[in-house]
Amino acid sequence: MTDAIWSDPAKLKQLIELFDSGVTVQSIADTLDVSRNAVCGKIARLGLKREKKSPEAKPTPALTPAAPPQPAPIVVAAGASPTFTPRPISASPVGKPVSIIRVRKNQCRAPLDERGGDGLTMFCGAPKLAGSSYCEMHHGIFHTHRQH
Ligand SMILES: [Zn+2]
């Protein structure tokens, strides 16, 4: 007699939809306001199975220890020197650091990572290379690392 519940095609459709959506039999029974047994019985008679969503699509739980993640390869940008790390520029051993107001035209203008007593940026101050704004050492640094 329980099958009489399903004489309503709307209800039957709802049963199938709910079942397909993966809710529990109990939820279907509650939603349709029928007994759980009625739902179970109808599902069995309809031959509904919860295998529509292919199990292969689901990520299978790893039963064996997964391979350790590969360390990301260290990408060195093309053209960049792999050994270059930004670090404070040190004064040339040749020159004596001078402040911005003291630096002369023939002196290296590489800003140093140190400050003068008045808080002004200090410049290298070593004799400039011909055709460069910097001494030999800083010319080398800037032309090695600042060129594209
Ligand atoms: Zn210099």
What would your notes on this structure say?
The protein is mainly alpha-helical and 148 residues long. 28% of the residues lie in helices and 7% in strands. A hairpin with a 5-residue loop joins strand 2 (111-115) and strand 3. The protein has a three-stranded antiparallel beta sheet, with no helix packed on it. The mean pLDDT is 80. It contains four helices and three strands. Among the domains are: 2-53; 98-145, no CATH class. Bound molecules: zinc ion. Zinc ion binds next to helix 4.
User: What Rg do the Cα atoms give?
Assistant: 39 Å
Report the span from N to C terminus.
Answer: 84 Å
- Quickly count the helices: 4
**Bound chemical compounds:** zinc ion
Concise structural overview:
It holds the Pfam family GcrA. The protein is mainly alpha-helical and 148 residues long.
List keywords for this structure.
148 residues, mainly alpha, three-stranded antiparallel β-sheet, 4 helices, 28% helix, binds zinc ion, GcrA, GcrA cell cycle regulator
